[in-house]
Amino acid sequence: MKGPRIAWILARHELRLLVSLVLWGARRTHGVRGGRAFGYAQGQAAVMFGLAFVCVVETVVMSVLLRGRPTVHAVVLLLDVYTVVIVVALHAASVVRPHVLDAGALRIRRATHVDLRIPRERIASVRRETRMTHEQADGELHVDVGSRTSVTVHLTEPVTHVTFFGRRREVRVVRFHADDPDGLIRALATGERAGGRPGEHTAQA
């Protein structure tokens, strides 16, 4: 992949993070529409805010150390503040971009990094399965939060996952985390639609 392409992807990613920060402040979500949202950010909130706090402390310390060098201080301060904003925006992106279940598909997301849409008719089974370690395997996608997944979905046929840098791979097993895994599994198992009515497709719990 060429340099300009990578730069564009990274710039687009940061823009999406900043947009997510605005949506978070406005208490809005992205891409839910008439579907049912299932969050996953609670499992990482403490870590993300702890990291943001560390960055703030570092910003204060560097400001003290560099107070005699105004030019360097201004540059470092700008970088440090931007780092804090990006860390908070990463958490915001996880909050405003939840998993979404609608009448046609289950959409699995993680911040702005993962966005996989699984048609309901391709879901063979779904079960609660808590895992803290994940070995890479062909045909599997692990969308972990804090190194943990809590739901495993097996598919009747593969779906295409597009990675952060645009590589395409086929997956038949998807493991991901949800704050309410039981609620998500029940909704899939009963074929629940966005409005709460039984749908056409079912999954095995």
UniProtKB/TrEMBL annotation:
It comes from the Bacteria. This is Integral membrane protein. Keywords: Membrane, Transmembrane, Transmembrane helix. The lineage of its organism: Bacteria, Bacillati, Actinomycetota, Actinomycetes, Kitasatosporales. The chain crosses the membrane at residues 45-66, 72-93.
